[in-house]
Design brief:
The chain has 421 residues and is an alpha/beta fold. It is built from 14 helices and 26 strands. Helix content is 31%, strand content 26%. Bound molecules: uridine-diphosphate-N-acetylglucosamine (UD1).
Length: 421
C-alpha cells in the first residue's frame, strides 16, 4: 500500500484550480440511470469513488466511457438483475443512491445494506422510509434491501433527520413518480441543489432545492444531458486551511465561495484573511492563528467534512478552541493520531477541546477515513520533521493527486508506492 511522506515547515503559496466536486459528481452519475439516453459529465475529479460509481453503473448495464469527461449511456439498463453488490457498496456508501433511480425507472432494485463505517453507524432508514412513502415495497434479506413497485406515486414526506443522500435518493425517485411530491426537512447542501438543476435539465419538474422543502411534479420520462460538475467546496476548504496554518498565500481558482460562507467565516475567526477575487478565493494565513469555536451543522452550517481540517488548525492556534461534531457519531478518529504528533486535544462526548501548541512533531500516523487523511497531511505540513501517513487509499477516494498539488504550492511531500501499511 502507498504511503505519503511530508516534511514539515513549508509555506504554501501560488494558485490552485479547484476540481469538480466529488459528492456532486457521484449523485449526478446515479441520475444518469433515470434517463434512456446518453449523459455527458464534464470536469469530473479523477478519484477512486467516481471510478467505483462508474463500475457500479457498468454492472447495472450502462455503457460508461471516459474519466475527466464521462459518457454514460443508460439505454441497455434493465435487462440484467438490478443489483448494487456488497463489494461495491462496502467501499463506497453513496452506492445506495442508485436505489431511487432504479426503482423509479425499472420498478425494482436490490442494494447491499452498507453497514457501519469508520465514522459511525450511518443508517439508511430515511432513504427507505421516503421510498416507501412513494409506494415502494421493501424486503430486507441476507444483508440486502430488495425494493419493488408497479409505479411510484407522488407523496408528502417529512424526513425525521436531515440527510443529504436520503434527500437526493427520494428526490430522484419522485422525479419519475406519478403525481406530485412534497419533501420536507430536506438537506439544503449545494450538491442537492446541483442534482435538482441537472434533473430539471433532464426534464424533471423540481422546485425548492436549497430550501428545506422540495416540491416535485413527477414526469413520464427524463432525457440525457450535458453537464459540467461545479467545483468542490471541500477541496477548496482543505487547501484554504493549508494556506492558513502555514502562513501562506493561495489563490483558489474557481472556489465556490457562495457555498463556503461558514468555512470562510471560521477562517476569518482564526485571523485568516479571505478575499473574494474575480478568479476565486484568495487566502492569506496570519503569523499567529487565533482559536476558534466550531459546531458542525447541515448546510448552510459548518460542514462536518471540514471538521478534521479545522481541528488541525486549532492545534496550532494561540489558545483554547472547541470543535463539536453533531452530524456523525464517531468522527474524531484523527484525534489520537494528532495527539501522537503532539497536539493537545481532549475529547469529551462529541466535543474536542484543543489547546494550541507552538509546533507539532512529525510521526508515523494512520489515515482512518477520507477527511481524517487530509487532516493528517495538513498536520504534517506544520510539524517539525517527517510525517508518514499510511493507508492513503482513503485519501484517493476524495482528493485527486493531493501530493502533486501541494508540491506545486511549495510543500515537500511525496507518495511512496507500495510501502507497507
Ligand atoms: C453526505 C456526503 C458526506 C457528508 C455528509 C454530511 C456524499 C456522497 N457524502 O453523506 O461527505 O459528510 O453528507 O454532510 O454526498 N442518517 C440517518 N438515516 C438515514 C440517512 C442518514 O440517520 O437514512 C444520519 C447519518 O447517520 C448521519 C446524518 O444522518 O448522522 C447525516 O448523514 P447524510 O446527510 O445522509 O450523509 P451522506 O449523504 O451519507
Amino acid at each position: 500500500m502507498d504511503k505519503i511522506v511530508v516534511q514539515g515547515g513549508a509555506t504554501l503559496s501560488g494558485e490552485l484550480r479547484v476540481n469538480g466536486a466529488k459528492n456532486a459528481a457521484l449523485l449526478i452519475q446515479c441520475a444518469a440511470l433515470l434517463t434512456s439516453g446518453k449523459t455527458t459529465l464534464r470536469h469530473l475529479p479523477l478519484l477512486s469513488d467516481v471510478r467505483t460509481m462508474s463500475r457500479l453503473l457498468a454492472r447495472l448495464g450502462c455503457r460508461v466511457t471516459g474519466e475527466r469527461t464521462l459518457e454514460i449511456d443508460s439505454q441497455d439498463v434493465g435487462s440484467g438483475d438490478l443489483e448494487a453488490p456488497y463489494d461495491l457498496v462496502k467501499t463506497m456508501r453513496a452506492s445506495v443512491t442508485v436505489m431511487g433511480p432504479l426503482l423509479a425507472r425499472y420498478g425494482k432494485a436490490s442494494v447491499s445494506l452498507p453497514g457501519g463505517c469508520a465514522i459511525g453507524a450511518r443508517p439508511i432508514d430515511q432513504h427507505l422510509k421516503g421510498l416507501k412513502a412513494l409506494g415502494a415495497e421493501i424486503l430486507l434479506e441476507h444483508g440486502y434491501v430488495h425494493l419493488k413497485t408497479k409505479r411510484l406515486h407522488g407523496a408528502a414526506f417529512v424526513f425525521d433527520t436531515v440527510t443529504v443522500g436520503g434527500t437526493q435518493n427520494v428526490m430522484m425517485a419522485a422525479a419519475l413518480a406519478k403525481g406530485e411530491s412534497r419533501l420536507e426537512n430536506v438537506a439544503r447542501e449545494p450538491e442537492v441543489q446541483e442534482l435538482a438543476q441537472v434533473l430539471n435539465k433532464m426534464g424533471a419538474k423540481i422546485s425548492g432545492a436549497g430550501t428545506s422543502v422540495i416540491e416535485i411534479q413527477g414526469v413520464e420520462e427524463l432525457v440525457g444531458v450535458d453537464h459540467a460538475i461545479l467545483p468542490d467546496r471541500i477541496e477548496a476548504g482543505t487547501f484554504a486551511v493549508g494556506a492558513a496554518i502555514t502562513g501562506g498565500d493561495l489563490l483558489l481558482r474557481d472556489a465556490p465561495v457562495d457555498h463556503m460562507h461558514a468555512v470562510i467565516s471560521k477562517l476569518e475567526e482564526a485571523g485568516v484573511q479571505c478575499v473574494v477575487e474575480p478568479e476565486g478565493l484568495r487566502v492569506h494565513g496570519p503569523e499567529q492563528l487565533q482559536p476558534i469555536d466550531a459546531v458542525t451543522k447541515p448546510h448552510p452550517g459548518f460542514p462536518t467534512d471540514m471538521q478534521a481540517q479545522f481541528v488541525v488548525l486549532a492545534s496550532v492556534a494561540s489558545g483554547r478552541s472547541m470543535v463539536t461534531e453533531t452530524i456523525f457519531e464517531n468522527r474524531f478518529m484523527h484525534v489520537p493520531e494528532l495527539q501522537r504528533m503532539g497536539a493537545d486535544i481532549h475529547i469529551t462526548g462529541n466535543t474536542v477541546v484543543v489547546r494550541g501548541v507552538k509546533k507539532l512533531s512529525g510521526a508515523t500516523v494512520m489515515a482512518t477515513d477520507l477527511r481524517a487523511s487530509a487532516s493528517l497531511i495538513l498536520a504534517g505540513l506544520v510539524a517539525k520533521g517527517t510525517t508518514e501517513i499510511l493507508r492513503v487509499y482513503h485519501l484517493d477516494r476524495g482528493y485527486e493527486a493531493i501530493e502533486d498539488k501541494l508540491s506545486a504550492l511549495g510543500a515537500t511531500i511525496e507518495r511512496r508506492k507500495g510501502a507497507s501499511s
